[in-house]
Write a structure and sequence with these properties.
167 residues, 31% helix, 3-stranded antiparallel β-sheet, DNA-bd_dom_put_sf, 8 strands, alpha+beta, Mlu1-box Binding Protein, DNA-binding Domain, 5-stranded antiparallel β-sheet, globular
Length: 167
């Protein structure tokens, strides 16, 4: 069989015939400028919750069963963040809480992973569908294809460790 050659060009993908498809045309109501905070707008949340945001389906596959891909917005330190219920436990998006609360306290995400290891915190790796949902909500950057989730309790332990390290 002949393999199709694909090439990526600034957010568009083309097949060997040169026809381009825009990868970012997902029906977002308001694109978020890169310099803006990754906080979610009400219209993005509402379109996702009502099912028009794409990727909100629950298929029952993988750990967590039926609720594996059901994303909710929960409040952490006064800010809404994305969360999934996996095996009956609420898990929040680690890159999102890093960006909102930790990046100004530590050197980078690598430092956070070092702290997680020292604190004996094991994040849960997102499924491909969960990553798509988080990207669609704007909780993670468009180019991100991996993500981890942690419990609220583990986030609080990590946050306390980061804030105590600065004193």
């Amino acid at each position: 069989t002949e393999r199709r050659k694909l090439r990526i060009n600034y957010g568009r993908i083309s097949n060997s015939s040169g026809a381009f498809t825009d990868l970012h045309s997902r029906g977002r109501e308001q694109p978020v400028p890169p310099a803006e905070s990754p906080r979610l707008t009400s219209s993005m949340i509402n379109s996702f919750i009502t099912g028009t945001g794409g990727g909100g389906s629950t298929n029952g596959n993988g750990p967590g069963g039926v609720h594996n891909n059901e994303c909710k917005m929960v409040e952490v330190h006064g800010v809404k963040v994305a969360s999934f219920t996996v095996d009956g436990q609420e898990l929040i998006c680690l890159p999102q809480v890093f960006d909102l609360f930790l990046k100004h306290l530590v050197g980078g995400l690598h430092t956070v992973y070092t702290k997680l290891k020292r604190l004996d915190i094991c994040p849960v790796v997102c499924t491909v569908e969960q990553v798509r949902i988080l990207r669609g909500l704007g909780a993670i950057q468009p180019g991100v294809n991996r993500c981890k989730l942690i419990t609220r309790k583990d986030f609080e332990a990590l946050y306390n460790d980061c804030t105590n390290a600065r004193q």
